[in-house]
Amino acid sequence: MKKYNLVIVGGGSTFTPGFLKSFCHMKEQFPLGKLVLFDIDAERQSVIGEFGKILFKELYPEAVFHYTTDIAEAYQDMDFVFMQMRVGGYKMRELDEKIPLQHGIIGQETCGPGGFAYGLRSTKEMIKAIYDIRQYSPNAWILNYSNPAAIVAEALRREFPNDKKILNICDQPENVVRSCSRLLGCHFKELDPVYFGLNHYGWFTHIYNKKTGEDLLPKLRALIAERGFLPQDAEQRDKSWLETYGMVKQLMEDFPDYLPNTYNQYYLYPDYKAKHLDPNFTRANEVMASREKRVFEECKVIINAGTTKGYINIHEDAHAEFMIEVAMSIAYNKNDRFIIIVENYGAINNLPDDGMVEVVAELGSNGPKPMRVGNIPTFYKGLLENQLASEKLAIDAYYEGSYQKALESLTINRTVNDAKKARIILDALIEANKDYWPELK
Ligand code: G6P
Ligand code: MN
């Protein structure tokens, strides 16, 4: 069996230990020759990397494991690149969330002005990283799940139009499917969804039973109305995520046609959400106080003990398992179905060809084969065209260094929808991001 070389860009992430465990767990199905962690933050990465060394020595001694801050060492001879960078770290995420909230507007890492701010930061570093990767591994598959995925995907579409081995993907639609399986009492692999939208802004039109073809959406609608909606791994989730999943019930009461992606709450109830978010303690604070603390503390305990035995809080996780399955579908030409961000070209018939949309696709070694959903109803088309314009204007602003385009991007965003507020928030974001953004004139 061929062994694959893989690098994780953003190796110092809180998600990396879960990936390392999942790689160990899935080594028979997806054997690695070499696994490298790459990060520009040597301090964070060394904690995760030292943990990884101990873990791999115990569970995966046949694979080469190391971590580095050196580009050549990271990108040489790779088959797969997993990209999970967070430009500016949680400190900048905190500002993405808090600056808009100070003005009564949604503060979120991927939606609204926060997503815009993060988008401009990510775009610059993602483009640079991909040029670096291509210098050393011209044929590696690049699986990008760095946020904000919608804006990053638009940027990469423009910068690398001929590179067919960059795949933008998010696990949230899959998380929603898994949550449905919890409610239905079945395995998520028994479900066959149909989905359309943009990243973090989409809907399931059907959730079929893979075997019988029965559409389970009516049943799910009734179950959600009766019991509400919980993430599959509800027991491991922070409060804010439980509230987010809980909003699906409300979304389906108001818009019963389809099952929504959880992120739709920000676009459809912007005032309500902005009022219910705490401007002094946002998700970034919650992550720093929970996942970040837990992961780094546990890694340090393991490093001091010199063994992972007896420490069980870091475990394989659904997110990592999902991304490894994506890689396997490419590596083994399995043509499994995933919900992927692709250039539209008719997948959603009445949206523009050059929009980066999120739909079901079969995925094999020649890339994704998106499935068509036909025309979408006027309500959804209106919402998505509006947001697509906002995302495209964000990338126009990036390339043109245009303050005007940035202002237009924020003004047209449903979470803002007001030019005066957009200008105030934009000016504050420019100040906060001056070390990261291109100059907007
Ligand atoms: C979901 C989203 C991702 C997001 C992740 C973690 O999986 O699809 O885009 O990064 O949640 O969010 P958190 O708030 O826990 O850092
Ligand atoms: Mn996502």
UniProtKB/TrEMBL annotation:
Residues 195-416 form the Glycosyl hydrolase family 4 C-terminal domain. InterPro entries: GlycHydrolase_4_CS, Glyco_hydro_4, Glyco_hydro_4_C, Lactate_DH/Glyco_Ohase_4_C, NAD(P)-bd_dom_sf. The active site is at D171 (proton donor), Y263 (proton acceptor). Binds 1 NAD(+) per subunit. The record marks E109 as: Increases basicity of active site Tyr. Mn(2+) binds at C170, H200. Keywords: Cobalt, Glycosidase, Hydrolase, Iron, Manganese, Metal-binding, NAD, Nickel. Substrate binds at R93, N147, R283. The keyword 4Fe-4S does not apply. This is 6-phospho-alpha-glucosidase. It comes from Gilliamella apicola.
